[in-house]
Task: structure prediction
Amino acid sequence: MLKVLRDAGPQTKNQLADVLGIPRTTLNASVRGLTDAGHVEDGSVAVSSGGRRSVTVRIASGRRFLVVSMSETSARVALLDGQLTVTSGVNIDLHDRDLETEWLADTVCRAAHRLLGTSAPAAVGVAAADIEPTAAEAVVARLASAYPDRPRATVSAVRALALGERCEGSASAADDLVAVRLGRSVTVATVAGGSLVLGSTGRSGEIGHLRVEEFGPACACGLTGCLDAFVSSSALVAQATSLARRGRSSGLAQVLERAGKLDLRDLVDAGRTGDAVVAQVGRELGQRLGRVVAGLVAHGNPRRVVVGGPVAAIGPSVLGDLRATVYRLAPPSLAEGLDISLSDPYGRADLIGGAAAAITSWIEQDF
Result:
């Protein structure tokens, strides 16, 4: 019942009985027990279907879930309720800062205590990108020490993105989707039939080191021609820097002269003003990524593809060429009706996905 309420939001008792396939009397007894324990409560009145309007059941507002979402440039600490709504949060800017593990762990914990006060969360969720591994480990360890008896869940940023988009996506697309995260590396997470696909060793989706050109640029992994060598954040910054030095963008050239280097934030800012270099880099990214995504569509037949992560903030130029390439190369029978979109640039889906994972841990440990 709690998993249904997590995924579908407040439900009437009739809806819960139908979904769970149990008699209404059994459902009523379960609801009473969970209500008495403070886990569920009455929600809003449901829309009438012609008869008497029913009060919905929802996860109790007193159950709050602490989520930490760590990306390459920021760490967000937030509280979400059982309806996966962000109720409060703190953003920690990591831009241009050496990632000191103890400082980050201390700062995250101070933010959590500020949001929670003296209370403890029902569960803790951590969504971590491909940042310094010891930094993520230090944050998880410090939260475990701060809230030792509370369930915890740690998921990769791309899986949090997929879980969050599943909860936020349209009903027809939510149970079969592919999430692509563009950041320091390119990663993918797949939801099939409503379940997250993990793979035999739990490492599915690491496509950044898939070789897309035999004699392409050198990659950080030591090989050449990997997807990351073309569309990771560092690769895009290098491409934009080269174009700016050749006089293709006066705006980026001025930033380069003033700061001595460009970073991804400079590209995102320039892209918002219609910078030609960022538009070119974005189009090439969309075309190259589209060839890989077309293969994923042919293999998995998703209803939706969503692209997120810090690089996706470059925006429309990425999406337009990505769509055109996928629709051109994927089998027409699978591309028909396929929705390809960008995730919320502020990373709300990552927080929602982290909370969904935390609620799962809460249910599995406490029930």
